[in-house]
UniProtKB/TrEMBL annotation:
Residues 40-85 form the DUF4440 domain. The lineage of its organism: Bacteria, Pseudomonadati, Pseudomonadota, Alphaproteobacteria, Rhodobacterales. SUPFAM superfamilies: NTF2-like. Residues 1-23 form the signal peptide. The keyword Signal applies. Keywords: Signal. The keyword Ribonucleoprotein does not apply. It comes from the Bacteria. It holds the Pfam family DUF4440. This is DUF4440 domain-containing protein.
Amino acid sequence: MKSNIIFAAALALTPLAATIAIAQDATAGAAEEHADAQTIQAIHEEWAELIAEKDSAAIGTLYAEDAVLMAPGEAVVEGAAAIEARWARQLTLDGF
């Protein structure tokens, strides 16, 4: 009888434990997403500053070696070095 009560109590608490675990995962996931968003925002702000400074070499360091730049109306540019060169040309144009 005692083992039946313990089993019933454990069975009754299982959904609660699962709900708590899901809530903890969701909270951890939200914190991770917030950190990712902050990282992306910081990189975007740095990128904007480097464009204002017309520092194509530093802009190039923001890109991965296998990055692909697909600007509207332009040919695809592949690789950090090629993207850096593209920015160097872009930053010399009037209006930049």
